[in-house]
Specification:
The structure holds 2 protein chains of 2 kinds.
Chain A lengths: L13 E10 L2 E11 L4 E5 L6 H8 L7 E6 L4 H6 L3 E4 L11 H10 L7 H7 L15 H12 L6 E5 L7 H16 L3 E6 L2 H7 L2 E6 L2 E6 L1 H8 L2 E6 L6 H5 L4 E7 L2 E6 L2 H10 L5 E7 L1 H17 L1
Helix pairs in contact in A: 3-5, 7-8
Chain B lengths: L1 H13 L1 H19 L15 H32 L1 H5 L8 H28 L6 H28 L5 H15 L11 H7 L3 H13 L6 H28 L1
Helix pairs in contact in B: 1-5, 2-3, 2-5, 3-5, 3-6, 3-7, 3-9, 5-6, 6-9, 6-10, 9-10
The chains are: A alpha/beta, B mainly alpha.
């Protein structure tokens, strides 16, 4: 597990210290501690219900922690927002209806202490051609872009995006992330929540994996991918099975032999299968399947829990 | 915050249905009720003619419509859509949203008052002194703040499907029982006893006192002041509760 190194003197952009938030009997966020530093592009990755949205709400001061402290730029979330240091796009963030896209973006600009020209904001978000359209007549993807425009209406230091590409088709998604990269290249800190490992992998230089309100993993996209990108390999072998030879295969995370069937989990299925043939065996009914993010998280959780006990 | 007030206004002026009900409808209702009444016979115990009496009722009704409808339903809807949450991520102070809503409602309520006055003066020959016209406009306009606060409270109390019926019941209940549509003197005695404690009744009788060149009744002022404190306090409490929950 690597955490991005930063000088101890730098005030973290985001600081969570032992933060807990409970709804009834559900612990949405459970003792979460993390720090983000200037210039990082961070993905908050987790399945639905992992606590991503609650984490972002706490971060923005929309919700209050039951215990623990949350800080933005060393101050309270509200102070950071009033200082115009944060731009945010929420899944649950609605838009004012009955007005045009341009009017709404103009409002967002006028509410920011260091606004950009309205025309620039519209162009950057790719909504200049729908500027005169009424907000209530937009498609899901267009509405997302308007939310993005609102989040980037001024010169903020931190941009927060909660599942920003929901409702966008593939090409819109790509265009969106290109815009996003520009933001990051200007030295902004970007934090986005997603449940797509591919998005985290393509965009983020640091990935936080959240599961049941706890931080499961914190590392580079490649590291997380190695952990969560595990594949399941299953095949049948005839005759006597040499289990110790199977355990010697590279990139294994688990081996399970029942009867003539062998089930393996591997972090690099290509290499493992290649080595398998190297053993001189003839695997039949060979299947290689992705674990899927959810299962991969369970796998990571189990691994973490095994480590702790 | 001025930019939000501006945008709220632009939106209100574009909304034809809202404009019709808050600006045109009260004047139309005035003509319907007072249209055939003669301009000389006085209503018992008031010293006012029917058109003069109904003019204040309808101006009050128009202002009530603009501020109550403008606030309650919009606030409930925008809390649900998440627009209120989005605004909390801007530099706009927490109260700014409610103040902008109320300010823009007040801008719409002014023409609805003035248009009723114009129609009454032109069509039904209602004549008052200059100070009375100004006093009436000021009193009805300022008094509408009581109902703006009520609208905010309902907007934060109810959500989704419940907001419209609650608003309508409050709106018609207050209008009718408060005597905005017909003089409360036509009510049975027990209903009159209830009606005189309603803020809408106090609101309209404030205007009538000006028409009669009398000092406003202490009871009316008290009813309005207590209502304002209750509604504004309730709105503030519900607003805080909503903010903590969201």
């Amino acid at each position: 597990m690597t955490t991005t190194a930063a000088p101890a003197t730098t005030t973290p952009v985001v600081g969570f210290d032992q933060v807990t938030k409970t709804y009834g009997s559900v612990r949405a966020v459970d003792g979460l501690s993390l720090r983000l530093y200037p210039g990082e592009t961070v993905a908050l990755l987790g399945p639905n219900g992992a606590g991503k949205s609650t984490t972002l709400d706490l971060l923005l001061g929309l919700k209050h922690a039951d215990s623990g402290t949350v800080s933005l730029f060393g101050t309270s979330p509200r102070e950071a927002i009033v200082a115009g240091r944060v731009g945010a796009m929420l899944q649950s963030g609605g838009l004012m209806d009955g007005v045009t896209v341009a009017e709404l973006v103009k409002l967002a600009c006028s509410l920011h202490p260091r606004p950009y020209p309205v025309a620039d904001v519209l162009a950057r978000a790719g909504i200049a051609q729908i500027a005169d359209r009424k907000v209530d007549k937009l498609s899901g993807g267009q509405a997302q872009r308007v939310r993005f425009a609102i989040a980037t209406a001024g010169d903020s230091d931190l941009i927060i995006l909660d599942e920003p590409t929901t409702g966008m088709d593939v090409s819109a998604r790509q265009a969106f992330w290109a815009t996003m990269r520009e933001q990051a290249e200007q030295g902004r800190t970007v934090l986005f929540a997603t449940h797509y490992l591919e998005e985290a992998d393509a965009i983020a230089d640091r990935v936080l994996v959240l599961h049941r309100g706890r931080l499961l993993a914190d590392g580079t996209a490649a590291e997380i991918k190695a952990k969560a990108g595990a594949r399941r390999i299953a095949f049948d072998l005839a005759g006597e099975i040499d289990e110790s030879a199977l355990r010697g295969l590279p990139f294994l995370t688990s081996v399970d032999v029942s009867g003539q069937t062998v089930r393996i989990q591997s972090s690099d299925a290509d290499a493992t299968v290649h080595a398998l043939y190297g053993l001189g065996v003839y695997p039949r009914n060979l299947e290689v399947a992705g674990l899927g993010l959810e299962q991969a998280f369970v796998a990571i959780t189990e691994a973490e829990e095994a480590k702790q006990s | 915050m001025n930019s939000l007030i501006g945008l709220e206004l632009v939106r209100a002026l574009r909304n034809r249905k809202f404009l019709f009900f808050s600006v045109i409808y009260p004047s139309a209702l005035f003509l319907l009720i007072a249209g055939n009444a003669d301009s000389h016979t006085k209503i018992d115990g008031t010293g006012l003619t029917l058109p003069t009496y109904m003019m204040v009722s309808m101006a009050s009704f128009g202002a009530l419509t603009a501020v109550l409808m403008g606030n309650s339903e919009r606030i409930a809807k925008e809390r649900e859509s998440g627009w209120v949450r989005q605004l909390r991520l801007t530099t706009l102070p927490g109260r700014g949203y409610v103040l902008a809503k109320t300010a823009s409602a007040a801008v719409v309520s002014l023409p609805s008052i003035v248009i009723v006055f114009l129609v009454a003066a032109v069509v039904k020959d209602v004549r008052l002194d200059a100070w009375q016209w100004l006093g009436l406009t000021g009193a009805i306009w300022a008094g509408s703040l009581v109902f703006a606060a009520l609208g905010v409270a309902i907007g934060y109390l109810a959500s989704g499907d419940a907001v419209r019926p609650i608003t309508m019941i409050t709106y018609f209940g207050l209008s009718m029982l408060g005597g905005l549509w017909m003089p409360t003197t036509t009510f049975p005695q027990w209903l009159q006893d209830i009606a005189k404690w309603l803020p809408t009744h106090a609101y309209a009788s404030l205007g009538r006192a000006i028409e009669q060149s009398q000092a406003p009744h202490a009871q009316d002022i008290a009813v309005l002041a207590v209502s304002f404190v209750l509604f504004a306090g309730g709105a503030a409490w519900l607003y805080r509760k909503d903010t903590l929950k969201a």
